[in-house]
Amino acid sequence: MRVALIQMKIEEKNRTLNAEHALELLKGVCGRADAAVLPEVWTTGYSLGALRKEAEWPDSPLVKEIAGVARDGRIAVVAGSVPFRRADGRIYNTTLVFDEQGGLVADYDKIHMFSLYNEEKYFNPGGKKTQVILKGVNCGLAICYDLRFPELFRSMAVNGAEAVFLPAEWPRARGAAWRLLIQARAVENQLYMCAVNCVGKFKNDYFYGHSAIISPMGEIIAEGSEDEEIIYGDIDAAAVAAARSAMSVLKDARRDIYCL
Known about the structure:
Elements: E1 2-7, E2 9-10, H1 15-29, E3 35-37, H2 51-54, H3 61-73, E4 76-78, E5 82-85, E6 91-98, E7 104-109, E8 131-134, E9 137-141, H4 150-158, E10 163-167, H5 175-189, E11 192-196, E12 199-202, E13 205-206, E14 212-214, E15 220-223, E16 229-234, H6 237-246, H7 249-252
Parallel strand pairs: 1-3, 2-12, 3-4, 9-10, 10-11
Antiparallel strand pairs: 1-16, 4-6, 5-6, 6-7, 8-9, 11-14, 12-13, 14-15
Helix pairs in contact: 1-3
């Protein structure tokens, strides 16, 4: 499965421009990849003061447009994350996944709230992990701060995940942690990490970029810079099987001592 990581520049307080730009970038990768991935809260950035007005919902025009791009371009879309209003009226930080027919096949609400940015004041935390089959690959979903909680990734690996898609808005100030953690999550779980960051800034914090695809052996298959760009790389389920056959980390885990 060829994956396009869309490392886009996100403009503060400009939902209209961000939406138009993301759709343009999505259309540009059609025919060049099997799946495309956007970063975290790419419609609004972390300017969250107007969520009631700016949140998407299942039939919002933007959701329909993304589904249309997936269908017309015959490409799966992991639509980063967007502020998303559910039937209960609450707003979540949500990843929506569309298959190449434009069907909404999975969604994931961010579990871990980033208290440093007071995320819990704006979003409700999710209550479940999510996996979905894309192009025959068992894919897990996580968002940004989730990266710091290895239990989530191990539980998805135990449940058969061969790749994890991680949209993020990760700052330059913690760039060293970004590289370290995405490689660690890949190698310790013997799966692909597809980590998609943004560029631009929020207030005075610049985002790090460096979106990357990491192999089950922890190798960097493809990596971006700190500029807006598209990063392409391949996911091969056979490589996951080979890594797990060569070293049986998941089988050797002591589930009788610690909970997975």
